[in-house]
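Please discuss these two lines.
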Amino acid sequence: MTTAPERNGTTSIAANGYGRPASPRIRLHRRRIAIDHPDQQAGERLLADALGAVDRDALHGILKQLMKASAIGQKPDEANLAFMVSMMKSIAPRDSIEAMLAAQMVAVHAMAMRSACRLAFIDDLAQQESATRALTRLARTFAAQTEALSRHRNSGERAITVQNLSVQDGGKAIVGNLTQHANMIVAEAGSNDGRQGAVA
């Protein structure tokens, strides 16, 4: 297949990765993964950093799992794999847990989109219901994975947003945007400094 040359805008985006160093692309050769970089070790390091892999074994393990998840009709698909790797890079996993979770997230997303495509072409009511259930489960799983990633990155803390606040006579208030996490101790009502209390 012959493709048209890339325009300058696409090339510049691919080259700088929106401010991140460019990492090499993945090529498939007879179900074998090849990292497209002139220096194989440097290419592996760049890709490992982008995918949150701690070493060569972790990198190749994640890539093989993504390759299997990219399969269309039992054959790994290079374009689908490139998309999945690109999405993992955009999630920017920072440790092994995030790397595994990001790989699961991109695989679940790919399956959800396949289910949505199947659903669009099904006429049989029973098959529509089955495909709808599968799509719903995958969408819920993806939402739960996104929440799990957020909790992991915030060390399990949940942010609390105060939308309504009343200050009584003699009380003190701070005006501005504040973020408070659930594990912080907040002064209780009746404290000596006269602040209105809240419990996280």
